[in-house]
Amino acid sequence: MNITIRPAEKKDCAQMMQLVNELALYEKAPEQVTVSFDHFVESGFGSNPVWWAFVATQMEIYDDSDAEQSDVRGEKVIGFALYYIRYSTWKGQRMYLEDLLVTEDMRGRGIGAMLFDQLIQSCKEKKYSGLVWQVLDWNEPAINFYKKYNAGIDAGWLNGSLSF
Amino acid sequence: MNITIRPAEKKDCAQMMQLVNELALYEKAPEQVTVSFDHFVESGFGSNPVWWAFVATQMEIYDDSDAEQSDVRGEKVIGFALYYIRYSTWKGQRMYLEDLLVTEDMRGRGIGAMLFDQLIQSCKEKKYSGLVWQVLDWNEPAINFYKKYNAGIDAGWLNGSLSF
């Protein structure tokens, strides 16, 4: 498959945002994506980053017969795991996984697991006390995926929110 | 009551941590607090802060008959709201309220609301797109408190976690 997992760079932002928008369209909620591209880039690669990510990429050879070269190589982002640091007054610094996303036609090939394994390794390197996330209670494939890691999957919490 | 709401400073950390430990004791889970004091201070006031807070303080006059002065004034931390920045690929930067805590004998006096109002004002000043938090589904007083703000209170999510 020739898949690479590496830290996200600024140049990946356009492809990452494209995956976000594809998913929102698939979930029939494209109007819910109100973040601007500039704000996304600034929040990850500006002077005070508030998110970090690993991307899964694949080398692609495009057939471009109009180009002078017979083929054009490109690195395609096919998934990513985006996180930030969460602070618990009981447990200290933990990694919060906000999005774990693999493009639809590349699912079922273990790419999500490659990204998740990378997060676990990164937590250990950075001495975070844990990795936490949320999952929808009807999303059985995702819940089963996390259970393979013996993850705690806890009910009993409600999400509160105010929008401005 | 003479209550002041202000941004937390480094000198408040000891009293804040004391409130955290009191609450854990009250919840019969003191062993769950595994964060060290140094790590708490470093995480809030080191070179890369990952949490911020507002404290509610009260001026107290201690009767200290051994001291040369007839009374000793002290600023007591009676509650705090601790938050960090959450990044959503749909909504951008939002404030995540991790802890909203008022010491037991000071509850019912609107101090939680003063802290929460301060968070809302701060979100607007910093142009965060929202304020989010979690609440236990059996905590009716807390849920009713948030409903007064017309907050969304959404079920359907499970909390996943791995500890290292």
CATH architectural type of chain A: 3-Layer(aba) Sandwich
What form of chain A results from the Cα inertia axes?
globular
Helix count, DSSP H or I runs of 4 or more residues of chain A? 4
Q: What is the first-to-last residue Cα distance of chain A?
A: 44 Å
> How many distinct folded domains of chain A?
1
Name the strands of the widest sheet of chain A in spatial order: 1-2-3-4-5
Which structural class should the secondary elements of chain A be placed in?
A: alpha+beta
* Quaternary organization: homodimer
CATH class categorisation of chain A: Alpha Beta
Low-confidence stretches of chain A: none
Give a count of the beta strands of chain A, DSSP E runs of length 2 or more: 7
CATH topology of chain A: Aminopeptidase
**What is Rg of chain A?**
18 Å
The CATH H-level superfamily of chain A is: Gcn5-related N-acetyltransferase (GNAT)
Which sheet architecture does the biggest sheet of chain A show?
A: 5 strands, mixed
Element order, helices and strands of chain A? EHHEEEHEHEE
Mean pLDDT of chain A: 91
Instruction: List the chains of the largest interface with their residue counts.
Output: A-B, 60 and 60 residues
Q: How much of the residues of chain A is beta strand, in percent?
A: 35-45%
